[in-house]
Amino acid sequence: MKATVMYKAGDVRVENVPDAGIVEPTDALVRVTHACICGSDLWPYKSLAADAPPRVMGHESIGVVEDVGSEVSGIKAGDFVIMPFAFSDGTCEFCREGLQTACIHGGYFGNPAIAGAQAEAVRIPQAEGTLYAVPSTEDDALLASLLTLSDMMGTGHHAAVTANVGPGKSVAVIGDGAVGLCGVIAAKRLGAEQIIIMGRHRDRIELAKEFGATDVVSERGEEGV
Length: 225
Description:
Strand content: 25-35%
Distance between the termini: 50 Å
Order of helices and strands: EEEHEEEEHEEHEHHEHEHEH
Structural class: alpha+beta
């Protein structure tokens, strides 16, 4: 299968790699229909050492389940699923507290041990606790929106919840990238009265206004404050 492989900083290639498949009975195999690049992919793109092992990149995707391991019962072949950026069993003490990224049996995609999702298919460890099935759709716009739920929308929503955004609040969203724009959506959904987007890109600012931003601050530093 084809996949996006990073060899070192600035060296990314699309090439043939061994097919993804079931390894553990708790795995699922997902055929990737849509994947995207995260801002955190830029960290290894800028700094990965030349002697580091190459890795299939990507931790944001949606797709169709092709196969499941013998211990997976909540997900089945044919399900259309959202794959979050980390895998988790969903049952450990941390998962039960909503801290799936600290799962004692979990981990992250896109490293030498666990291949990422910028590929034709991806192996999902701890599939039952990781994948979220949704109705399949042919609507390209809806598919793009579902893809945001694999990371950026969840991250923006988490930021808004952590900041105690609620009805009548005034909110400043710092940055107009994908997560910042999702933070605007989350703040609007949570009932904020004033949503200030701090950004400098005209097209993104227009999106922020469409998503619910009431004010724009493009200055930085003390002037921005």
